[in-house]
Amino acid sequence: MAYGGKVLRPAQGNNAYVFPGIGLGAVACRARTLPDELFLEAARTLANLVRRKDLDEGALYPPLRDIRKISLAIAVNVATKAYTMNLTRQSRPRNIRRSVEALMYRP
């Protein structure tokens, strides 16, 4: 896809990047519901992980090779937002990142 004289390479942003992080974050905090605010938090987190170098190379997302780090960042921010919104079925842990990381599958 071309935009502004540059060729951009769209990808599976929702399936590959956003949904795994949302799912992990929701499971980690035992979210009762998943309102739009959690999806927006995931999208903002992903957008903040895109580097200038990625954009200059025509990528709209960070490299897929970093998917574990990306999913962790999204999950932590989603869980944090869910705790803030009182959407969880458990108490907020002292270290949300560590709590989420402990649930990640390790191949």
What does this structure look like?
The chain is mostly helical. The chain is built from five helices and two strands; from the N terminus they run ββααααα.
Keywords:
mainly alpha, two-stranded antiparallel sheet, 107 residues, elongated, Rossmann fold
Describe, in short, the structure shown.
It contains five helices and two strands.
List the helices and strands and how they pair.
Layout: E1 2-3, E2 6-7, H1 13-29, H2 36-49, H3 52-56, H4 67-84, H5 96-103
Antiparallel strand pairs: 1-2
Helix pairs in contact: 1-2, 1-4, 2-4, 4-5
The run of helices and strands is EEHHHHH
Major sheet size, sense and barrel closure: 2 strands, antiparallel
Structural class: mainly alpha
Strand order within the widest sheet? 1-2
Low-confidence stretches: none
CATH superfamily: Malic enzyme, N-terminal domain
Q: Indicate the CATH topology.
A: Rossmann fold
Distance between the termini: 35 Å
What is the molecular shape? elongated
Q: What would CATH call the architecture? A: 3-Layer(aba) Sandwich
